[in-house]
Amino acid sequence: MAVSSASGVFAPNDPPFKPLIAATDGSNFTYVSLHDRVPHILTDVVNDLFAAVERCTGPDAAISEGKALTSELSRLKHEMVTNKPLPPLDDDGVGDIAAWNEWLAKYFPGAAWYSAPFLVWEPYMYRRIAALFRRSQHWGKYDCFAARKEATFRASMTAVARLCARVEALTAETAGDAGSPEKRHVAFAELLQASLWGNQTDLSMFPDLSSEALEEMQARISSGANHSKIVANDTERVWQIASQVRNGRIDIVLDNSGFELLQDVLLAHWLVAVGIAGKVVFHPKRIPWYVSDVTNSDFHWLVDAARDPSMVGATGLSAADEQALKRLGTRWAELLADGTWELCDELFWTGPYGYRYLPTEGRDAWEGALLKADIVLFKGDLNYRKLVYDLEWPVTTPFVEALGPIAGRDAPAIVALRTAKCDTIVGIDGARAAALFAQQKDWVSSGQYGVIQLSPGRWQS
Question: Where is the Damage-control phosphatase ARMT1-like metal-binding domain (predicted)?
Answer without folding.
Answer: 35-432
